Amino acid sequence: MRTGDQLRDEILSAARNEFAQYGLAGARIDRIAKMAHASKERLYAHFGDKEALFRQVVSADGAEFFDSVVVRPEAVAEFAGEIFDLARSRPEHLRMITWARLEGLRLQAPEWEGQAVHERDMTAIADAQASGRVDTRWKPADLLAMLLGIGMAWAHWPDPEAADADDATMASRRADAVEAAARIIAPHHD
Fold it and tell me: Per-residue b/e over 41-72, b at no fewer than 16 CB within 10 Å?
C-alpha cells in the first residue's frame, strides 16, 4: 500500500511526463491517473484541478532546473556550459518551462535558501564584477539572461536532429557556449 506521499510523488511524475509531452491544454487527467495507478478522484483530492497540478509540476521542475546550476563568481562563463549540460540531460525541465510560457502562466521564481535563484546568481555576477573578473558595464540581470540564452541556444535550435549529435560535436558546442560567454563577460580595458 502506498503512502500519501508516495502517491503524490507518482502523480507528479506521471503529470510531468504528460505535461512535458502535451502541455496544459493537451494533457489529460485520465492518462495521468492511469500512469500513476490512481483514480482521478485521488488526483483531484491531492491537487485540486489540472492547472494547479501543472503549476506544481512546473514549479518543481523550475526549482530542480535552477538548483542544479549556480553562477560562481570565479567561473561565470562556465555557467553557460552548465546550462548547456542541463538542457541536454534534462530536456523535460526545459519543455515544462516552455509550456508554462506558452500557456501564459505567471510562475513564482524558484527559491534557494529563502532567496530567489536569480537574485543568488545576480549577486555572484556582481561579486565577479567587483573582483574584476566580469565587465562592469553589464547589469547583472541582463548578463544572467544572456548567459542562460547562450547555454540553451542549441536546445532551442529548430532542427530536431541537433539534439542527436555525436559526443564530439556536443563537446565542441558546449566549449563554444563557454567561449562565447567568456568573450561577453571579459572586462573592458580602455
Answer: ebbeebbeebeebbbbbbbbbbbebbeebebe
Whether 86 and 93 have beta carbons less than 8 Å apart is answered as yes
Which superfamily, per CATH, for 59-185?
Tetracycline Repressor, domain 2 (1.10.357.10)
List, for residues 140-189, the tens digit of each pLDDT value: 999 999 999 999 999 888 887 777 888 999 999 999 999 999 999 999 86
Question: From CA 76, how far away is CA 59, in angstroms rounded?
Answer: 25
Residue 83 near residue 178, CB atoms below 8 Å:
no
Fold of 1-48: Arc Repressor Mutant, subunit A (1.10.10)
CA distance 118 to 124: 10
By mean pLDDT, which of 4-13, 20-29, 75-84, 127-136 is the weakest? 4-13
Q: Would you say 151 and 84 are in contact if contact means Cβ atoms under 8 Å apart? A: yes
For the entire predicted model, the pTM comes to 0.82
116 phi/psi in degrees, rounded to 5: -60, 135
Q: State yes or no: pLDDT of 190 exceeds 70.
A: no
> Phi and psi of 103, rounded to 5°?
-80, -10
Instruction: Give 66-75 pLDDT, tens digit per residue.
Output: 778 889 999 9
In the chain, ranges of CATH 1.10.357.10 domains: 59-185
